[in-house]
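Q: I'm writing a short explainer about Lipoprotein for a general audience and would like to include a description of its predicted shape. Could you first generate the structure from this sequence?
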Amino acid sequence: MKKWIFAFAGVLLISACTNTPPVQNLPEMTFKHLAPIVVQAAKLDVVNKSVTSVEGKEISHRLPTSPKQAMTQWAYDRLQPNGSGGRAVFTILEASTVENKLEKQTGIKGVFTTDQSERYDLTVDGRLDVYDAQGKNKGFATAKAHRYMTVSEDTSLLELEKKWYELLEKLMADFNQVMTENIRTQSF
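A: Of course. Here's the predicted structure. Afterward I'll give you a sentence or two in plain language.
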């Protein structure tokens, strides 16, 4: 009986020490609030050709919304096929998030200093090709955007996720502006 009491007390003690990490609900990243871009094609295909090339530094999977997800969402929200034949192909050429560790102050000075500890580089690159019903390329438009930020060593995980989301939002606004301008200069 005493063993059960001690075991029960131990379980209560351990469970009292654990906290559920706070959950952050960030909004879904969409582009539906923007006017659609009408493309003279019967259908839209989205193709991902981005590759992870930076050894161990690619961390897109850690972001609340990855650059690849944002690019795919952009294509489906903004590009509206409205033609009797042919197809539009939006190709994701790059959608990456790279983390680089920064040097921090060491020694006594380092104890009293809050340094920037990581730099995050986000890059997106996309291409829209429009083909007629016979498969002939009628034209294309491209856009590439890059942004980065550094964070201090005392940044919490919730703060970091929010900063990643905000950085990706700004990056996609840059991409959207350039791609929209480049599409409008084409005759497709």
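A: For your explainer, you could say: Helices lie at 2-17, 67-78, 107-111, 157-184.
Q: Perfect, that's easy to follow.
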